[in-house]
Amino acid sequence: NPEATEVCNGKDDDCDEQIDECVCFTLSCTDSSIQCVKRIDSGDDGDNLVDGKPKVDAEYEFRVVVTGTGCTPQYVKLFVTQRSNPVPEDFYGYSMTCSGDFSSGATCTYKTKLGPAAVHKFYFEAKFSDGATIKKYPETGYITGPEVQLLTGYNLVGAPRDINTANLDGQNAFGSSITYRWDADLGYYTKVTTLNPVKVGEGYFTYKANDTLLELADYGDVLESEYTYQLKHGWNIISNPYAGNVKLPDIKVQKGSGTPVSWEDATDNGWIVNAIYYYNGRDWGKTYSFETADDGATLVPWMGYWVYLNKDDDTYSLVIPKP
User: Fold this and answer.
1) Residue 314, class by beta-carbon neighbours within 10 Å (0-12 exposed, 13-18 middle, 19+ buried)?
2) Is 9 left (phi over 0), alpha (psi -120 to 50) or beta?
3) Are 301 and 117 in contact (CB under 8 A)?
């Protein structure tokens, strides 16, 4: 089967004989379009268009079928990157939820939004109960994921790359010279320039100049295990500093030089509003949607979000963990 990766743990190619605990496992996909991806709204899984218009909150379900008997996977994971020529450390892994019987084929899934990155590449990995067998699908290389286009007009975006010393303006960071940040102190937008450049963790309004954002392939990912981003009283536009999904409940909030507290405690304390807001775009009425920690809100790479800080009695910062 050309769409199956055999997981045979030391057996002959025909997998007729069982060696140790594992008989032949396969990882497979049956999609006719982009392999292993389904759009939740039943739209074309190759893009984020609805009636020809880009939509920011199209959701995708990554899925792989794991089949075999004799051992159970310790995990099945999806690995995703936003680089055209990735190396292994560029990928971020997500645990998949598996349903069904592995002997007849268990379907393992992970659902997420995707930001308007230049490219998405992914693969699947299963580790089995013998502790030694780890196999990929596809066995070599990667699958190129959907093209997620920028919205018509303005977009809320971020740049999850290590660019804080690069002095990038909007053109060099996002491919558009029409890029603005929200200045909470002044109460209005200011243009992004090389003198006031793009920073990791901040979000921006940028006007669509290309279908997707720039890859920024010359810049590495942020390597710190936590990234601290200081907020201002009132509205702030933030973004994910990492190229992997970060769940809102995993973010901590630090008051002054105190010990960071959980997102839940910060909202219970009245420090911050329990929501992130994203812009739906001109084609969709220039409206906003929001998600809360209770909804499973996630900071998706390359997207920007509004958050609201209630307090002005001290400095407050988000402490965002590396996924």
Assistant:
1) exposed
2) left
3) yes
Residue with tokens 């919205």: 151
Report the distance separating Cα 75 and Cα 129, nearest Å. 9
Judge contact between 28 and 65, C-beta under 8 A.
yes
Instruction: Please state, in angstroms and rounded to a whole number, the distance separating the CA atoms of residues 155 and 116.
Output: 10
The pLDDT tens digits for 129-178 are 777 788 899 999 999 999 999 999 999 999 999 999 999 999 999 999 99
Work out the burial of residue 257: count CB atoms within 10 Å of its CB; fewer than 13 is exposed, 13-18 middle, 19 or more buried: exposed
Rounded distance between C-alpha atoms, residue 1 and residue 15, angstroms: 13
pTM: 0.92
C-alpha Rg value of the chain to the nearest Å: 21
Q: What number of CA atoms fall less than 13 Å from residue 110's CA on the CB side?
A: 19
State the residue for tokens 């209630």: 310
Beta strand residue intervals within 131-210, DSSP E: 134-137, 143-144, 154-157, 179-183, 188-191, 204-207
pLDDT in tens, 52-69: 999 999 999 999 999 988
- Residues 272, 253: contact at Cβ < 8 Å? yes
